[in-house]
Amino acid sequence: MFDDQRALVAHLMRRAGAGVTPAELDELAKRPYAEIVEDLINPTLDEGDDDLVFRYFPALANSDTPWPWSGRWIYWMANSDSPLREKMALFWHHVFATAWFKSEHGPSMPVHIQMFREYGLANMRVLLLELSRDPLMIFWLDNVESVKGAPNENYGRELLELFSMGVGNYTEDDIKAAAYSFTGWTFEQPIPLYPHGGYPARFVYRDDLHDDSEKEFLGQTGAFNGDDIIDIIVQQPATGRFIGRHLYNFFVKDEPGVSAWSVTEPGNPEAVAELASAFMESDGDLRAVMRVLFNAEWFKEARYQRVKCPAEWVAGAYKLSGKLSMPQPEMWNLHMTMGAMGQSLMDPPSVEGWHTGKEWIDGGTLMERINFASKLVSDPSTPGVQELVSRLQERGVSSPEELVEATLDFAGPLEVSDNTRAALLDAASEGGALSFDDEEAIESTGKRAAQALRLVIASPEYQFA
Asked: Which parts of the chain register pLDDT below 70?
């Protein structure tokens, strides 16, 4: 059996980041669990060696496509000392889904994601205010067209329906009031793309285009502006419940799609209620909500009950293999690699985002996932495989049974079914006992360790976080 403290910390790091290396896990497991949570929810905003990324990945000089920026983001998911900062950014990208395919304005995409990285654990008011001032979102939901006398309702509608409260907690009149309140929230038209490439867009508030008439919104009356609307939204119990369910779905256990929430109860109503209470009691402090989530027993018990999304899968595979400790030219291809798995970062299919859970897996996407991750550990000289071999030698592993157990521990620790374990053992038994007697024996053990790790990665259980 695996050490429970070690398995619990590994579970936390899979959910709060892209996983953890065995060496990192060894050190973290020595610390109190609640102390690790505090470090995670209080990340540094230091960009670390981002200059290194730009130096060794010059494709970032081209900001007119999300491809290189997807690669950079995966690099930071796999290497950041503040993993929850990257995971919260990915979470909010799922919730506030905004895509390059409409704007086709490359410079706005990394700025949009950076906003999530900076404010993803802030107060909900701050995050929604930054979102409402974001040029990419303003263009995506047509608020650039929303002016006094001719408001566009798209942003007001999605702010209530998908971003904060959910269907059934507001009226059409509330949508109209929100739309009127956000009139005049727009951006400077950036310099044209050609001939010098993309230039950034900047938020501007046009008072002459704002409707300053009295409005009624969610039972309150006043000459509201957009920030007033946000303040009222965060005060609503429905917002705490809705954000709590989003957090539960992403960090704890797969739920039905958000479009079904108005007619489908949460899988764990008590957990969502606990998160909603934390939201309301802290006045929308997302850090306080995440503290409750990670320390809850229902979180600790929900191991391997979420299908990894492609971004988690790719970043986690790099984390396990150790093959992205430095920026690599192959980062350019990761946008399409994840797209083949069903998730093009920075280019979700609609404002509703991606359909998650079991919908990540079908015959084609499963093959893409397994082929990608297996290739990363197919070479015995891969850092991750070398680390596994070193651990096998330190522990004096010799039998196929011990090889299977050590590999499952290395990749997880991962609990698997009897059928999966039997299949792993059958493969590991080919070649008999392991040996470290000489270079030839060590080389043979390296090949068998790589094969064992490939098969673990291909197991049904490894698809889950």
From this structure: 1-2, 45-48
Other CB atoms within a 10 A radius of the CB of residue 140 amount to 24
Contacts of 116 (CB under 8 A, 6+ apart): 88, 89, 92, 93, 96
Helix residue ranges per DSSP H, 237-329: 237-251, 269-281, 286-295, 297-300, 310-321
Element housing 166 (H / E): none
| Terminal CA-CA length for the chain | 19
Which helix (H) or strand (E) segment holds residue 186: the answer is strand 185-187
Nearest of 3, 34, 117, 17 to residue 465 by alpha carbon: 17
Pairing between strand 185-187 and 203-205? antiparallel
Give the number of other CB atoms < 10 A from CB of residue 110.
21
Tokens of 243: 């954000």
Which residues have CB under 8 Å from 367's CB, separation 6+? none
One-letter amino acid of 66 = P
The answer to whether residue 112 is domain-embedded is yes
Torsion of CA 259, 265, 266, 267, to 10 degrees: -120
98 contacts 140 by C-beta, under 8 angstroms: yes
Q: Domain check: are 400 and 293 in the same one?
A: no
Residue in the structure block whose two tokens are 């049974």: 401
Q: Are 414 and 463 in contact (CB under 8 A)?
A: no
Q: Is the pTM of this model over 0.90?
A: yes
CA dihedral sign, ordered 367, 386, 70, 98: positive
Beta bridge partners of 187: 203
Instruction: Note whether residue 340 is domain-resident.
Output: no
Quote the CA–CA distance of 113 and 168 in Å, as a whole number: 29
Residue-range definition of the domain harbouring residue 439: 383-463
Q: Do 22 and 123 sit in the same domain of this protein? A: yes
